[in-house]
DNA sequence: AATGTGCATTTCATTATTTGCAACGGCATT
DNA sequence: AATGCCGTTGCAAATAATGAAATGCACATT
């Protein structure tokens, strides 16, 4: 395990649990020696990615992370382009809408607008969605680079509910169906009682870079609703791609 | 130089220049060997902090950074609490307003609302503001922990304009005046022709954690304007602190 | 006040990772 | 065909990371 991997796993731990963590707890959770853990944290602090409370000695994520994320957004304005579309979709459907972006680890939820209804689906910002168990993931895979799709089909497919797709063949079928349809339909694969409809967001090269999804409680989703949502979600996904890269296919990021 | 410091310096380089960079350019800019640079990048890619274009082989910042920043925001909702106040202040003043957060390297600009006027001040999101040369920095220092203030006074004070405060004694005077007033007044210390008024945002322990500032072209700022702005900026800064930590002093982050 | 416990921090010899050189193969230009 | 540039890989040398143990600190208990 490389040193940078260790350092970043500490960031993940700091981000995952309580807002602040003690050295001993971090070391235990990460499986590193206390001394090692501390030296990694010191390095991260010097770079502004971690902060330490002067008095309690507790560690927390630092503002340097916000800075890096803002610099990225300045270079590739995914949120700036997508947010208005997500808002429109949320207003049009009245259900929870979430937006995600591809990362090595899965689809990262980068924006959520929750339905105003009492019975609604809740997704956490920053959550990583598994490719095989969510509508977003399947919509993504349907238009993803071959290499990525194969990687998921070949890898493990852990079950999150009794409805999670567990074998590669079925998953491949769902992906193919989503590709034909232009959007995917997720039925309780990640969370019970939740139906989702998702569409890919395509990059300049025509391959997926993310997904947009509408999620609603199962009780509120009739077949006709699903079909109606499918159409407008697909349009929303395409709209985001066009805002990001222009209407001309094959064009590169500015 | 620790390995993590090297890796993070690559992230800074990727964020600083063009949206995408080639290996050779990165290695040259960072001063690392080509092989070293590549291995660091591979580690960062495995963690999702960097992405590589499959065909062009160019590197760019990855979505994992957004994820970490979102997790931080979930733990410490600085933007969520501050943005409405910034918006109100922008509406009330009609000038550019920007919000910054303390980091080891300086004050990080985390939100900006630009004035609608044609002649307006422009600040970049993610920019790092020098403590000694900006109204925000001096407002921050006025209520910062003693150790941080001393560090700045002892350190170098590079000049950005002919108006930048260059010696520690003058800087200390300005900081003391800001402390007495509750807000700072910046006169072209960072950019010529720009006047700013800034107030600190105080943490649970009463020390600064950031700053909020109004920036306007010098031609539009009479003495009376400055005084008026000072009052409302100070109130905005206090409002943000209260939203974050509640009105009770000495209370810790949830 | 003294003792004990749990924590963060520092030290240092050992270990293992990181490093940089150099060589290779691909690709485009000359 | 030759040249130059780039990304990638192998390998011995150099350096940074490691973990056990010691130290110091603060707080709680006796």
UniProtKB/TrEMBL annotation, chains A, B:
Residues 1-63 form the HTH iclR-type domain. Residues 57-246 form the IclR-ED domain. The keyword Metal-binding does not apply. InterPro entries: GAF-like_dom_sf (IPR029016), HTH_MetabolicPath_Reg (IPR050707), Tscrpt_reg_IclR_C (IPR014757), Tscrpt_reg_IclR_N (IPR005471), WH-like_DNA-bd_sf (IPR036388), WH_DNA-bd_sf (IPR036390). SUPFAM superfamilies: GAF domain-like, Winged helix' DNA-binding domain. The keyword Zinc-finger does not apply. It comes from the Bacteria. Keywords: DNA-binding, Transcription, Transcription regulation. Pfam families: HTH_IclR, IclR_C. PANTHER family: HELIX-TURN-HELIX TRANSCRIPTIONAL REGULATOR, ICLR FAMILY, HTH-TYPE TRANSCRIPTIONAL REPRESSOR ALLR. This is IclR family transcriptional regulator.
């Amino acid at each position: 395990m490389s040193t940078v991997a260790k350092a970043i796993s500490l960031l993940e731990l700091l981000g995952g649990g309580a807002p602040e963590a003690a050295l001993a707890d971090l070391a235990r959770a990460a499986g590193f020696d206390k001394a090692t853990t501390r030296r990694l944290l010191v390095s991260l602090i010097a770079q502004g990615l971690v902060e330490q409370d002067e008095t309690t000695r507790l560690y927390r994520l630092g503002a340097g992370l916000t800075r890096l994320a803002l610099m990225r957004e300045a270079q590739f304005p995914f949120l700036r382009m997508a947010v208005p579309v997500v808002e429109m979709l949320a207003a049009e459907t009245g259900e929870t809408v979430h937006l995600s972006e591809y990362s090595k680890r899965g689809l990262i939820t980068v924006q959520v607008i929750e339905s105003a209804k009492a019975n609604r689906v809740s997704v956490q910002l920053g959550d990583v969605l598994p490719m095989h168990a969510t509508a977003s993931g399947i919509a993504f895979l349907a238009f993803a680079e071959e290499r990525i799709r194969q990687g998921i089909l070949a890898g493990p497919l852990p079950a999150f509910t009794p409805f999670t797709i567990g074998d590669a063949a079925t998953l491949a079928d769902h992906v193919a169906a989503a590709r034909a349809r232009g959007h995917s339909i997720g039925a309780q694969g990640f969370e019970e009682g939740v139906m989702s409809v998702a569409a890919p967001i395509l990059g300049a090269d025509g391959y997926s870079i993310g997904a947009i999804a509408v999620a609603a409680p199962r009780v509120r989703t009739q077949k006709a609703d699903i079909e109606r949502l499918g159409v407008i979600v697909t349009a929303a996904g395409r709209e985001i791609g066009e805002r990001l890269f222009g209407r001309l296919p094959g064009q590169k990021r500015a």
